[in-house]
From TrEMBL:
Major location (coarse): membrane
Boundaries of every Major facilitator superfamily (MFS) profile domain copy: 11-423
Annotated CDD domains: MFS_MefA_like
Record protein name field: MFS family permease
Subcellular location: Cell membrane
Organism: Paenibacillus tundrae
Gene3D superfamilies, sorted: MFS general substrate transporter like domains (1.20.1250.20)
Amino acid sequence: MESTEHQSFIKFLIVWFGQLISTIGIGLTAFSLGVYAFEQTSTATAVALITLFTFLPNIVLRPIGGVLADRYDRRTMMMIGDLGSAIGILFILTMILIGSIELWHIYVGVAFSSVFSAIQSPAYKASATDLLAKEQFSKGSGLLQLAESSKFLLSPIIAGILLTITSIEVILVINMLTFLIAILAVLVIRRGARVDRASREKKPWFTDFVEGWVEVTTNKGVLLLVFIISIVTFYLGFLETLIGPMILSFSDTRTLGMFQSISAIGMLISSLCIGIFTMTKKYASVLVIGLVMLGISFSLIGVSTNLSFIIFAGFLFLASLPFVNMSADVLVRNNIANEKQGRVWGIIGILSQLGFIVSYSLAGFLADRVFNPLLIEGGALSSTVGSIIGVGPGRGIALLFIVGGVSVVIMAAITSRLKPIKLLEQGMETVPAEPVGLMQD
């Protein structure tokens, strides 16, 4: 039994390593194309559109990828997704090499890659359930988040170095090679899931989608978790879009870069700790504690203009995030049937990302029209709240962070009392302990 679990974890590590390398490659390309577009146009709009075309197809089409992950071999879906993503990068590289590159070529290339990423992502997420024993779910979740954080921490640093010694063409070739490594890693796994998806009764695609939607929406605990994660991404979106204007209102870009790097290290360390140490219970409690720390640290970012204090709070914020994500991940993974997890992760993927979309849409308006005017000289709160956190440019954003953090702490307190969340943890006791989807070699 232990030998089987060990073999399954080794197989998971092989697939995970391939995806870690490809994730770093994706980050290299995203950073480098943004720099390239800005150098060519000197406009932030071009960079923003690259981000949009990279982000939107992946999120919108992820439910389709989830259905495919449940219908067909998840290993095959991952390879198709990585191969298609590489083709999108190859298109951009070809346009550059023949000297005909225009911005719309980059938009088409990254959008094409994003479409195939929507196929790869749910299959990759669900494959962890195929390959891991129940007791290894938390460790696997930590490693998945570690790989994701590498895109934000390692890729910009590596890309910055590469751009000084080589060209954008070389970086695109490196990214395509990282996709090849990911495909080879999946090929190493000789046997995939125990579930015979090929023999499943083939229903209309929409029926499969509806079944996944029903699986999420009729399970109150899972639906509440999706709502909680959506709220977290909502405030994370505020941090991403508004931390720059807040810090730059009284400091410089070097400090902003330090904030982003050190904060990302917090996420990296937490993900690494989760990946090393095994948790088997009390996920609901970890979720609540993580939310409390998340809320407190989010508020702390806004209470002072002391740069060391702000950087510490940012580190604490992103260090708390992996514990929230891991707890939600394991609770869902243990309460959804394996044969439906592709669809479920696809739907959860789009629902949980709605927070980002809403915050990206509202951040500028709330900062410029609502919160900043309250804390300018003579503003409505300048003599009250302003006497504590300061008055002037960017202090309204600080107030927004404080209010957001307090609301997350309140949400954590409510979550600790929710019976459906507690029932999710109780439901884990009925799940078999052996690896759910691995066949003996």
